[in-house]
Amino acid sequence: MKKIYKGNVVFTKNIGELTSFENGYLVVENGKINSVYKILPKEYEEYEIIDFKDKLLVPGFVDIHLHAPQINNLGLGADLELLNWLEKYTFPEEAKYKDLDYTEKSYKALVNKLWENGTTSSVIFGSIFKKSNILLSKMISQSGLKAYVGKVNMDRNSPDYYIEDTEQSLIDTEDFIGEVSKIKNIKPIITPRFVPSCSKELMYGLGELAEKYDLKIQSHLSENIDEVKWVRELHPDCKNYIDVYEKYNLLRKNKVVMAHCVWSNKEETKKIKDYNITVAHAPVSNGNLASGIAPIPSYRENKINVGLCSDLSGGHEIFLGKVIKEAETFGKLRRIEDNKKYNYMTTLDYFYMATKGSGKFFGNVGSFEKGYDADFLVIDDSNIQDVNERNLEERLKRFIYLGNSGNISERYINGEKIEKPF
Amino acid sequence: MKKIYKGNVVFTKNIGELTSFENGYLVVENGKINSVYKILPKEYEEYEIIDFKDKLLVPGFVDIHLHAPQINNLGLGADLELLNWLEKYTFPEEAKYKDLDYTEKSYKALVNKLWENGTTSSVIFGSIFKKSNILLSKMISQSGLKAYVGKVNMDRNSPDYYIEDTEQSLIDTEDFIGEVSKIKNIKPIITPRFVPSCSKELMYGLGELAEKYDLKIQSHLSENIDEVKWVRELHPDCKNYIDVYEKYNLLRKNKVVMAHCVWSNKEETKKIKDYNITVAHAPVSNGNLASGIAPIPSYRENKINVGLCSDLSGGHEIFLGKVIKEAETFGKLRRIEDNKKYNYMTTLDYFYMATKGSGKFFGNVGSFEKGYDADFLVIDDSNIQDVNERNLEERLKRFIYLGNSGNISERYINGEKIEKPF
User: Fold this and answer.
1) B164, CA 20 to 30 Å: which among A152, A412, B36, B253?
2) pTM for the whole thing?
């Protein structure tokens, strides 16, 4: 089945390179991009054209790391660094998700917000509670959005009210995998919270489950200085934070996303590269929790794949436009810190990370190249224009800098329009 | 004339300290704050009470540094550092303000945006064009907002199409001062653009005008590394950037605001302190133009007064809530850079800077203490709440982190409600 959408088509095939078609045509076949044209070929002349006029068509945003059960803490708690923040704000909040009523009303708000902000795909940390995570998965599926959802595992160094028995944690995870694998558009992902909260037995068991079901894995890596120190104390036999994950078979090549990587040293960076790990860059969160500035300009030079994320609720901006802007700022500040050793990066580099960079984790997602999922946003930027004429690159940049969810007038996934879920 | 406003009153008397009154009363007399009460005293019982119910009442934002004729560049041009950015984007745009039609239509948008975003007072750089600046001043006055407006001066190192003759620049400035002094709520301010674009004769002449009319002065100081180097080359007789302003009598004690101060060294910082200069901190701009992170935590420890600003269009966020958030992030990053030598600063510290910190430049502005101008915003935060009850401090923080102009339901200046101007 073919569909044709007309509008100002903008996307990035390669990092930093804009491809744009003024009044172009997006031809979609069976939910996938077939092609993009400046002038529509004769063969398509008889198809109905959905005309978005002067609006922009951009790939849907892909949020590669966020914590669903922190949604009610959005915009709060930025007065502490990671470890204290977890104790004071995060664990008490996540513990509430044992209650399925609380889960449902909170996740309605979450899923609505993802929809509003044009996040068509996301990679999600749930809570430790199996049923709550299954409900989350069903609700996202129902909305039409796509996601990897992980049941969080934690069996040590966690508060009494929010900790698991090792064996039960693994049983629940296997159950969760079985249930979620049946849900449309949702994939389970192995989710050890982070090294300090996972015993060796738990990590080893999760590595086995990942192998058994051929699953991807998400976790945290070198976010905060005190956290990195703590990991060294807990695992004196490992040289780096990443070595711990490696030791317990949690680094599956091409199948891992690690959030933050702010303090990764040279050796750790080499392993990130060797395992082709996707770095989930969370500048808003790294600012809020005073974590520091990740060395993204150097990761880019090393050809490490970087995706952008909200890291809700460490980060408070679900709209990835704001995350792109903050990533750009952090990149500029980091470049000064690194004595301008690396190339200057621009908005288009970070726009790529929020679409195709993150999207790679899902397969052909985040671009308008042939065969990519037809996941796109229709952008009405009429209220953020000025008295001068602007070209498409300027309009895209301005949407990122000045826009918000209110500028997203429609969302399409696999070529189908999706409506506000709840 | 007394007026009584009821609502959740929040403000900061001292940096970092929140004063709040749940369902409190703001008593206003002749446009000034008379007092704030938790329980309304009997003597006021017969007055009409304007009841804002569960909304927040906060001081109006004070933007202590912005460039009016850059409004149409908002959200664009963040791909260059200061000096190249001025040449490529800024000077060509400012030059358009020779045309009064362009001025009028552009400034309508600007004044509307200041109103929308709750910026009740601002300190403004205009263009070099006298008439355009007078029109700006009249338009702001008409809106009911308050401002210092400066006619920009530049007679060297500037493009042919946007440069002044020294003598004419001083004549125009004196004319401008005369005209603007008659306009309600607007005050003229002496505005040498920055050292590189002002000859010694011009600076000296401006210093004389400041003395003659007892005026305040605004300029830029140590924003960007290349700019600082250039100033040293232009003035080898001066030890620091600030010494140039001092030499030409442009540092009037208690009467100067200097934007940025990112790269001020120890000696320069001492002079900032000695002259009681207000530092206009522009984190969003300092990120966009890759200027660097100003040492605000150390300025705070030195008891230097800091105000916040949008620095439009170096900065693209007119809503000072976003600037407060970015200042907080920059402060945290700077603290890491300074090896955590200075105290941790929180949202309330930066909220103070955006209200009373900036407001001091206007006199008794930016607080709800007795005798302060009754400039306040009514905040409807109902669309940024979650399923849990939140206290006033949390609600204020969330307004700053998640809010925008849409959450500002009313604006009052000197106790009078002001409507959308254009």
Assistant:
1) B253
2) 0.98
